[in-house]
Specification:
- There is one protein chain.
- This protein is mostly helical.
- It contains eleven helices and no strands.
- It has a domain of about 190 residues: Orthogonal Bundle (ABC transporter involved in vitamin B12 uptake, BtuC).
- Helix 2 packs across helix 3.
- The longest helix has 30 residues.
- The N and C termini lie far apart (about 45 Å).
């Protein structure tokens, strides 16, 4: 099989167009989630994405609108309720089970009250459907992913400062609380967009695995940030290729299998524990 054969199929080309920017955004977001010890936030927002999408479908609204509005609003709400615009575990835990239960209610409402409703919508939200997106959806996903990447790169310096030493950052004029809230809004938007690729249940893997591997490979924050993005993109491209080559493997599973495999390899080759962040060499 020629290396470029998959690109001759529109479904694969669309998946690649959407998947690469989505993965890049996940890599950037994931690095700061790991650095700020907010991975649980990403897990909670994956459940929020499920609820938002099913709620929109239940009321006859485009599921993407439900995804973005719900995840961004809940992310900002968690930051507002938490100390210093950081969603703590108590706040997340208070929302977690209720929001998932609400999602199940919306799924039941959608499948029983709408004539066009069917169970596949819930499956697509939970596990993703990147090989089923249209050209227009792929272009929209690429545009949104690109914008998210630019916003995250622009926010990286003050966010890093506010993460490492919030007191000093505030004294130097960095709006720590505002930076934290903006970051959470971007996490929400990234979670909403990535749900369409890997699904709500598997989203956390794409946020955590590349970032965790990058942190073990370097102590330089900006290098780790870029490495996390590159690893996430590699996981996406390799996963799509694996799923194309082995038809029995769903793309979301293949993407996360590659991400997990890369992390395990990095774990094995870096025998020492993850080093502390070196702030003197950005």
């Amino acid at each position: 099989m020629n290396l470029f054969d998959p690109l001759s199929h529109p479904f694969f080309a669309h998946a690649l167009l959407a998947g690469v920017p989505i993965a890049a955004a996940c890599g950037l977001v994931g690095y700061f989630l790991v650095l700020r010890a907010q991975i649980f936030t990403g897990d909670a927002l994956s459940h929020v994405a499920f609820t938002g999408a099913l709620g929109a479908l239940a009321f006859g609204v485009d599921e993407r609108l439900g995804l973005f509005v719900t995840t961004i609003l809940v992310a900002v709400l968690m930051g507002t309720l938490g100390a210093k615009a950081v969603a703590d575990d108590v706040v997340i835990g208070s929302i977690f089970a209720w929001i998932l239960g609400l999602g199940v209610f919306f799924l039941t409402l959608y499948t029983t009250s709408r004539s066009s409703g069917n169970g596949s919508a819930g499956v697509n939200v939970l596990f993703g459907s990147i090989f089923g997106i249209s050209a227009g959806q792929a272009q929209a996903a690429a545009a949104i992913g690109g914008v998210l990447c630019l916003l995250l790169v622009g926010l990286a310096r003050p966010l890093l400062f506010a993460t490492i030493d919030p007191a000093v950052a505030a004294a130097r004029g960095v709006p720590v609380r505002l930076v934290g809230l903006v970051f959470l809004a971007l996490v929400g938007a990234c979670s909403a967009e990535a749900t369409q690729a890997v699904g709500a249940l598997l989203l956390l893997g794409l946020l955590a695995a590349p970032a965790g591997a990058a942190q073990r490979l370097t102590t330089r924050p900006y290098v780790a940030l870029g490495l996390s993005m590159l690893l996430a993109v590699f996981d996406m491209v390799a996963g799509l290729g694996l799923s194309y080559g082995v038809a029995a493997l769903p793309p979301s599973f293949a993407i996360l299998a590659v991400a997990t495999g890369v992390y395990v390899v990095v774990l094995l080759v870096t025998s020492a524990p993850a080093k502390r962040l070196n702030l003197t060499r950005p």
